[in-house]
Amino acid sequence: MRRVSHSPALPVVVPHTVADVIGATLHAHGVEVVFGVVGSGNFVATHALVQAGATFHAARHENGAVAMADGWARASGRVGVASVHQGPGLTNAMTALAEAAKSRTPLLVLAGDTPAAALGSNFRIDQHGLVASVGALAERLHAPETAAADAARALQRARVERRPVVLMLPIDVQAEPAQEAPPPVAPAASLPPRPAHAAVCAAADVLARAERPVLVGGRGAVLADAGPAIEALGARCGALLATSAVAKGLFAGLPYDLGITGGFASPVAAGLLAEADVAVAFGARLNPWTTQHGRFFGAGTTVVHVDVEPAAFGAYRPPDVAVIGDAQATALALADELAARGAARSAWRTPEVAARLARRWRDEPLEDAGSAEHIDPRALSIAVDGMLPADRAVATDSGAFLGYPAFYLEVPGPCDWVFTNGFQAVGLGLATAIGTAIAAPDRVTVAAVGDGGLMMALPELETAVRLGLRLLVLVYDDAAYGAEVHHFGPMGYELGTVRFPDADLAAFARAAGAQAITVRETADLAPLAAWVREGGGPLLVDGKVDPDVCADWLTDAFRGG
Ligand SMILES: Cc1ncc(C[n+]2csc(CCOP(=O)(O)OP(=O)(O)O)c2C)c(N)n1
Ligand SMILES: [Mg+2]
Fold it and tell me: What's residue 364's pLDDT?
């Protein structure tokens, strides 16, 4: 056995290799933050990116690294970047990569890869086939001469196509001497796709006649930063505004905002949505969650669908008018077209509707289902919402608890709401929240998670502590896979496979170095007020909630299929 010391004081001789070209090119094209787990396949390229000027954040699991990059991208509006080892490093990242693909997050994953001729390598798998199978794009470092172009192209595709791109970096090509390459060319300015005039006119015809129009913003509207343009259109045609669950916050604070449409709609919003005669969906596919299984935007509603993807039209409900175009560009064009046709209409924007909309979810009467052992999850959410500063972000996991943050935790804008439910995977929420917190470290970020999702992501508690993040890990702890309890319990199944003994989650958090409290009534939240006042690293709130209380939205969802 030999003891080896690695002194940072020793001069580091860095050869100029293809890996250096990759790092320098990505930094020159704007990459400043990278998340990752480093192994032999991505060590040198990651090192080169950091040498070039980027900041590296180590995750404890590759799924965490990619979820962090996803959260960071959604909160910052920029391309998120992660770096993983080849083979198992990439397979570990697949769930988070699938989520990013389904949610159309612009993401670049740098993945080591085995040399083409290393047929016997343990690490060898079909990396291209793997990432393509979850909807990500596979790109490749081909040769020393193409290294700069390969890196720039991968980044540009992620940005323009709004997708995760995985850049395969064969380790033998990375290690080759750098070729003299022309200096990196700045990417061409890419303008968002503008809608055809005829399509704008057809949509304007519908809106000009509408009595009770609703404009719905989805993920495509968030990616296009279309909130102000859609609001301007709403003011011109007298429309109410609503979002899909993933786009919560898009119209925050506006007087005619209904909030989320679908299963998470407030009673007031649900009443109005069911009466809409016209709906214009901007970057929202009107899936069964958004329409509450057809309760909204059914046969009695004329639907205009605006999307950059032709394949999106009719994915769930055939639109009456389909407009291919960027959400922002189309909202602006529609507002211009209506302005050219005449004066603004008030339509559904009446004082009576405004008065009805002043009522929020938390104003609804609450029959407290708490007990000596358990806090009502709604009471927990309302109390936490009231204690946090308004400038905050919320990132969620998936599970039965999901409605509580959606209903009760307010956010100032759509980039402050990170709702990783494109793949409906449990276990991504904590890491997504870490990425979100890193994007804006001065405010509080809430990771709203279930006990099951937290247990899947436990190692990243150490990451949150190590990075000293202003992170509130809010656990809806029912000691169960509650979604399954409420799904199969009513059918009479025995539930031993989805229930667990009560676990002291606060103790896990303290072991990782975080502060933590166990909460069975709102009075137990007092240390949260001190944490908000005094600052400091992560705080975990283990909210002990009753496993037998099922939210109405979930009962509805199971009923709807
Ligand atoms: C990775 C993954 N595994 C399993 C599931 C199936 N599933 C959906 S919700 C859920 C329970 C999650 O439990 P928890 O995080 O405690 O939230 P709860 O439903 O109890 O509120 C499970 C296992 C899934 N969606 N994703
Ligand atoms: Mg649970």
Answer: 82
